[in-house]
Design brief:
It holds the Pfam family Peptidase_M23. With 263 residues, the protein is of the alpha+beta class. It has a single domain, classed as Glucose Permease (Domain IIA) (Distorted Sandwich). 25% of the residues lie in helices and 19% in strands. The protein is built from 5 helices and 9 strands; from the N terminus they run H-H-H-H-E-E-E-E-E-E-E-E-E-H. Strands 1, 2, 3, 4, 5, 6, 7, 8 and 9 form a 9-stranded antiparallel sheet that branches. Helix 2 runs antiparallel to helix 3. The termini are far apart. The protein binds zinc ion. Zinc ion binds next to strand 1.
């Protein structure tokens, strides 16, 4: 079932990666696109619990270190940790990920919906944490359309990056919590954005996206997000990759409240 998606992505992946300087492949290292495929495969295995957490952790670390080294071999992506810190504080770096909405759409008061403690990306049985911000829209009849415009709500990439994995096959009844999601790797920050519960995904694995570019449309996909008690929202998570290649959730609230917005 996933074959068609991958084949499509294969065709587009090589062409679409705008920063072609990244993929000068004069070594035996896997290409950027190969790392994306590995990421997609691994994340699916984690979700299906067909890989043990320790093995998943090792594979993940290898993929992230590989991606980092591929990008760092390109001049424009050589960012040290000092530059990274200043980028994160640059006002114009991030776009608010929900078109037509801004700070007031973030769940909870002052972003209190974020609970990073106890999160383990590699163990799907661990629950209770919510290392993310939920961003809500006005959709009282839960038809995935903005009640104010009767249009779908665009999900925008918060920063420029590489689409490392997508899911488009979620169906009601599936117990996958993320529904149809997009993972974007930002090589400047060396971190991953995760956009979940989309109704439609508008990018493919291996594609380069610009900050503020539409990547999906908001939806209600995902085991809990589909339920009537859940208001329509985007689940936004950011994982900072550590020197050991492993992810650490980071609260994106400060980025969101200073992000550029679009109508
Ligand atoms: Zn959430």
């Amino acid at each position: 079932m996933r074959i068609a998606g991958i084949a499509g992505a294969l065709l587009m992946g090589g062409l679409n990666i705008a920063s072609s300087q990244v993929i000068t492949s004069n070594s035996d290292e896997p290409t950027v696109y190969a790392y994306c495929q590995q990421f997609q495969r691994l994340y699916t295995q984690i979700r299906e619990q067909t890989v043990v957490p320790d093995s998943a952790r090792m594979q993940f670390s290898t993929i992230m270190k590989g991606l980092q080294s591929r990008f760092q071999s390109a001049e424009s992506f050589r960012v040290d940790s000092l530059q990274r810190d200043s980028l994160r504080q640059t006002k114009d770096y991030f776009w608010f990920p929900v078109r037509g909405y801004s700070t007031s759409a973030i769940g909870g008061t002052h972003g209190e919906g974020y609970r990073g403690k106890g999160f383990d990306l590699f163990d799907y049985t661990v629950r209770g944490s919510h290392p993310a911000q939920d961003i809500f829209v006005v959709d009282r009849n839960q038809n995935n359309l903005d009640d104010r415009t009767s249009q779908p709500v665009d999900i925008l990439s918060m920063s420029s990056g590489l689409v490392v994995s997508i899911e488009t096959g979620w169906k009601p009844g599936s117990d996958y919590r993320g529904g149809n999601w997009v993972w974007v790797y930002d090589p400047n920050l060396h971190g991953l954005f995760y956009y979940a519960h989309n109704s439609a995904v508008h990018v493919v694995t291996g594609q380069w996206v610009q900050a503020g570019q539409k990547i999906a449309e908001m939806g209600r996909t995902g085991f809990n997000a589909y339920k009537t008690r859940s208001p329509t929202h985007l689940h936004l998570m950011y994982l900072q990759i550590q020197p050991d290649g492993l992810p650490q959730p980071l609260n994106s609230y400060q980025w969101l409240i200073t992000a550029r917005t679009s109508n």
